[in-house]
Each structure stands twice: as C-alpha cells, then as structure tokens.
Write a structure and sequence with these properties.
It is a single chain. By secondary structure, the protein is mainly β. The strands form 7 sheets. The protein has a 22-stranded antiparallel beta barrel. It has a 5-stranded mixed β-sheet with strand order 3-9-10-7-8. Strands 4-5-6 form a 3-stranded antiparallel β-sheet, covered by helices on one side. Strand 31 and strand 32 form a beta hairpin.
Length: about 650
C-alpha cells in the first residue's frame, strides 16, 4: 500500500471529525461513553482509557460469517494471520503474534477469556456463539496481565444472561459437506442469570479456488459448549460459574498441498471452569473480584502410516484477586494473579512446571472537571520453572514493569491520548533449565537468560459523535533481548538474548451510519479499519521482519432495516510479506508471499414471526465471494468459494 493510498484513507477520517460535529444532532450519545474492562481490569468508560482499544460487538459477531474467533479477527483486519488447515491459527498485532503451535506461554500476544489467560494461543479453539463482545487492546498489557502481552491483548467476553428467558436452535449446511447445529439459551429469573450454548460441526475436505481437492483438510467432528451462570447473593454481589469446552476429533493435518499427506490428523481439546465472586460496597465506592480457574489444553498429532504420535497436555490453574476504590476523582486498583502450568509431552523435555505469582497496582486520577485523566501502573512478577524426569533442573526469574497514560477530552466527542507501556515474555522452562537429548543433540538451558522486553510509545485520538466513530493512533516500539537458539563452545544447543527490533506504525478505524445521518429508517454503515507499519526492522540484520505484513485493511458496508433484515459485505486485505520457504527444502530460502483480498458476504432475513411463539430467521453466507486463490501461510491454500445456508428459531 503506497503513501498516497494511506493519505487517501486518513484524510476522510479527519474531515469527518469536523464535518459531523456541525451537522449531527447534539442529543446523540457518543460511543466514547461505552464501558470497557480490559485495559485496566475494572469497568470504565472508554473515554477515560489512554490506550487504543477496539471492541467487536455482539451485533458485529452475528453479522459475520466467522465460525470461530480466529476467522472473526481475520475478517476484522486486526493484524497478521497465520492460518493452517486443521484448526490452527495464530494472530499478530504490531509485529508480534501468538505461538503458531498454540502455546499460551510462548506467545507475544495474550489471549484472555473473561479476563484470565485462555490457556491457548490458538484462536481456532474459541467459537463465537456465546460471546458478548471481544475487546482488543493494541500494545503491551503486561502491567495488567503479566507475561506474553507484548503486542496486545485479546479478551473474549462471555455473555451474561439478562431479561426474559429465551432459547434458540440453529442449523447450517454448506460447501464441502459442512454441517453445523447449535442450541442456546439466555435470560434471568429473579436473582439467577444464565447464558449458554452448544455447537456441533463436521466438514469434509475442501477444494482450493483453482478447483484442486486438498486432501485431509476436513474434520470428523467439532464440539463447543459455553456456560455462564450466576446468582446475586445480595445487591451488587454475584457468584458465578463459567465453563468452556472445545473438542475436535480427527482434524486433518495435510501438510503442504504440493506434498499432500492423506492421513495425518490431530485431536485437540481445551476445557476450563471458573468460579468468580464479583462484589461491591457502593456506599464506600469499593469493588472487588475473586476468581479461581482450572483448565486443560490437549494437542495430539498422529501419523497412522508410521505409527507415530506426538502429544502435549497442559494443565492450568490459577487465581485472581483484586480490589478497587473509586471516589470519582481517584481510582486505585490492586491485586494478585497466580498461575500454575504443568506440561506433559511425548518429546523432551517430557515434564515441565511453571509457577508465576504477579502483583499489580493501577491508579487513575481525573482532573479539571474530569477532562484530563492521568493513569499509571506497576507490576512485579516472580517466575519459577522446573524440568522434571531427569531432563533439567529449576530456575527462577523476576520482572518489574511500569506504564503511564494521559487522556484529554478536548470536547465531549474528541479524546486525545498518549501512553507509554512495557511488555515482556518470560523464557520457557527448557530455555532456562533444560538439560536433555533432542533431535539435534544435547540441549542445555541458559540460567542467565533475561525476559524478552519491549517499550512502546503511542499517541492518538478518538472521535465519536452520533453516527460517526473514528480513531487514529501512531505507535513506536523498541524490542530487545529476543531469545534465539545458538550453540555452545562444545557444540551443544542453547539459547541467548541476541535479537532486537524496531516497529512503528499507524492504526485507524472509521465508521458512519449514513442512515442515521440523513434520518432514514434503516442503517447503512460503511466502515474501515487499517494497520500500516511504517517500520518493522530486525536491528541485527537491518532487514524487514519475517512473517510480517506492512498493511492489514478491513473495509465494507453493513445494511439493516432494524426489522429482521441485515447484510454485510466485508473486504479483508493482507499485504505481502517475506517468509521462509520450507516447502523448497532446507536451508529455507527467504521469499516474498503475495498480498491478497478475501471478500465475504452475509445476508440475514427474518422470514416468519409468530410473536409470542417465536420467530424464524434465514441466514446465507458466501465466503471468498470472488473465489480468490490465497494462503495465509505459503504452501497452505485456503478454501475456494464456500456457500452456507442456516435456519434459526428463537423463542
């Protein structure tokens, strides 16, 4: 994307700020009043946040053709996507990404479910059916959530039941033998609230846009369930239980299309349960949260031909406690996080253990009639790892990191903001404490390793007035102490802090409801979201970072008559990138992977309404509308044009 196109996108956004302020009805409530929770772990109005936050609402999720969170974020152009057949997807933000094997501990972007670590970096394991919204914080969130939050935080927030109890049943058929069905419920009765869903899916192998059958890309079955129930024991005090379950059986692991493996497969599971107590004493402006959670993440790869199996089992448990005091001028929040992981693997090191208590303090003050909001925070983490089974020892590491931010409400509709934050990712157990034999000889941990670290400076503006919403952000990140594999003087394998990089760029979002602008009875909302990296350089080599696109752009239009009809046409563009071409052999040459645009169309129409006896809604989806031949990872082409038709009954 050239500079002229970039300016052509930004200038209309700036023009809309000033034009709309003089023409839109001043009685409209700005979206800057929207409540978010991810940036500071407590509920706060978006206008008080000094960070670049993007919220994907429940309506946007419903109008999307995405079946899971990874597909939704790709459609929304959140950042770099690395997607493989077989339900494995990594997401990148600001040049950093989740681990491509789904490892939560080795990710540079942190995935949360309801404010706690998801236990996986593979977003394909999180479906969208019982999701209220998704909050994305771009930039480091280590002060709030600890290790891994360098590039950003993605918080998937489960629905909480409210209003009259309701149920729905939905069935979908589609291309490549796709079959999906969902049953769900939501509502509240007196002091009891509940929301949940169960989804079952299956799909055959798909064809690429060129009409080539990509063998072993389907899955036998995929099941997902989500439950959020709670009881208000007394006003403003709720005890809740949240349960998530994902399981896929025989998901194809086909390898490169050029060397298509016909029978390798994976079985994957992710399961968790949370017990949460949210409390408040309104008369003294005190709020608190206590959480205990436990979960398991399983990845099993099988090669039937050679009777070979690889398996990782990760047991996770943790606790969160926090207390917040807010007197309208000052907000103070402090707390403790504790997580404990045990990893069992069929390859060395076979047994690893991770323990991490973290202590944080967050503060915010509102000045000058709450026009100026100063915020800051500090977090200390102690990290201890242990290698068992005689394949290493134990080591520990510490980290202390700050952040500071400023939000200035220049008008009721325009916020200017600035933020400085630090991120970090702790070394793994094998990198710190390993001593074992592997594929390429002996591996010895380095106890002198430091955490990978980043410092990020950003500034931007958010504007919201009636039907117009827009934001623009510039960020600059210095990354150092990257952990890279090397060898000792004796030829053994080890790791050292030898990498650093500089990443900077511009992020922007814009949408306007033309229907509201002209007082029409229906919505017509064009929108666009842009990430443009101005620099993404490896300072050791002076070259651009691999697997990083300088442009990610999502744009489209949503139309709704507010009475049962809606349509969404979405274009998702991902720029070219330099990648290592392992398909060509070893050592892998660095090549250019081409850019592409994927277009999805979704149309929803209520076809029958029986009032108090329920309603039927028909939903049609066309993914890859123009049958584009594209691939997120070189050698792994995605499906060609896919058509889905679903029927839903709500009561």
């Amino acid at each position: 994307m050239n500079k002229c196109l970039l300016l052509g996108w930004i200038v209309p956004v700036i023009f809309a700020w000033f034009f709309s302020a003089s023409t839109v009805n001043a009685k409209e409530v700005p979206a800057l009043e929207e409540v978010v929770v991810t940036a500071t772990r407590v509920e706060e109005k978006r206008k008080e946040v000094a960070r670049n936050i993007q919220v994907i609402t429940e309506d946007e999720i419903k109008s999307s053709s995405a079946k899971d969170v990874s597909e939704l974020l790709a459609e929304k152009g959140i950042g770099h996507i690395q997607k493989y057949p077989g339900l494995l997807t990594s997401i990148g933000i600001r040049g950093f990404k989740t681990d491509t094997h789904g490892n939560d501990l080795q990710s540079h972007v942190l995935i949360l479910v309801d404010g706690r670590r998801a236990g996986t970096g593979n977003l394909a394991k999180i479906l969208t059916k019982n999701v209220e919204r998704i909050e994305i914080v771009r930039g480091p969130g280590s002060v709030q959530y600890g290790s891994s939050g360098i590039g950003g935080i993605i918080n998937v927030i489960t629905k909480r039941g409210k209003g009259r109890p309701s149920i729905f049943v939905e069935g979908t058929l589609g291309s490549f033998g796709y079959q999906g069905s969902t049953v769900g419920f939501s509502g509240s009765i007196d002091k009891f609230d509940f929301s949940g869903s169960y989804t079952s899916e299956g799909m055959d192998d798909y064809e690429t846009a060129k009409g080539v059958k990509y063998q072993n890309t389907g899955f036998d079955s995929k099941a997902n369930s989500s439950l959020n129930i709670g009881f208000e024991i007394f006003p403003k005090n709720r005890i809740g239980l949240i349960y998530h379950y994902f399981d896929v059986d025989h998901a194809g692991s086909p390898g490169y299309l050029s060397n298509n493996d016909p029978d390798d497969y994976t079985d994957q599971r992710n399961e968790s349960i949370d017990l949460v107590y949210d409390g408040a004493a309104p008369e003294i402006s005190l709020h608190w949260k206590v959480r205990y959670f436990s979960g398991k993440d399983i990845y099993k790869w099988v090669d039937p031909k050679f009777q070979s199996t690889y398996e990782d089992n990760v047991d996770q448990e943790g606790a969160q406690t926090q207390i917040s005091w807010d007197n309208k001028s000052v907000n103070l929040t402090g707390g403790l996080d504790w997580v404990h992981y045990e990893v069992d693997s069929t390859s060395a090191p076979r047994r690893s253990e991770y323990k991490n208590p973290g202590y944080f303090l967050l503060a915010k003050t509102r000045l000058f009639d709450q026009r100026v909001i100063l915020s800051g925070g500090l977090r200390y983490d102690h990290y201890k790892v242990k290698i068992k089974k005689g394949e290493g020892g134990s080591e520990s590491e510490n980290h202390l990191g700050p952040e500071v931010g400023l939000a200035f409400m220049a008008t009721d509709f325009l916020k200017l903001r600035a933020h400085y934050g630090e991120g970090f990712m702790m070394p793994s157990a094998k990198q710190l404490a390993g001593d074992y034999r592997g594929w390429y000889g002996r591996y010895i941990g380095n106890p002198d390793l430091d955490p990978e670290k980043s410092k990020t400076y950003e500034g931007g503006a958010d504007f919201s007035y009636g039907p117009v919403n827009s934001s623009i952000t510039y960020f600059y990140t210095k990354f150092k102490d990257k952990i890279q594999a090397t060898t000792t003087s004796t030829g053994d394998n080890t790791w050292e802090n030898i990498g650093k990089a500089t990443i900077s760029g511009i992020e922007g979002d814009f949408s306007v409801d033309i229907g509201e602008f002209f007082d029409w009875s229906f919505e017509v909302r064009p929108y666009a979201s842009l990430v443009y990296l101005t620099k993404y350089e490896d300072e050791e080599t002076g070259k651009d970072l691999l697997y990083t696109s300088n442009v990610s752009l999502s744009y489209g239009i949503t139309v709704s008559d507010m009475e049962g009809f809606s349509a969404n046409l979405n274009f998702a563009y991902l720029g070219d990138q330099k990648v290592e071409d392992y398909e060509s052999g070893w050592p892998a040459p660095v090549v250019k992977k081409s850019d592409f645009t994927v277009v999805n169309l979704t149309i929803t129409k209520r076809i029958l309404d029986f009032n108090k006896y329920g309603k039927f809604t028909l939903k049609g989806e066309v993914r890859n509308l123009f049958n584009k031949d594209y691939e997120y990872v070189k050698g792994y082409p995605m499906p060609g044009r896919s058509v889905f038709l679903g029927l839903r009954y709500d009561f």
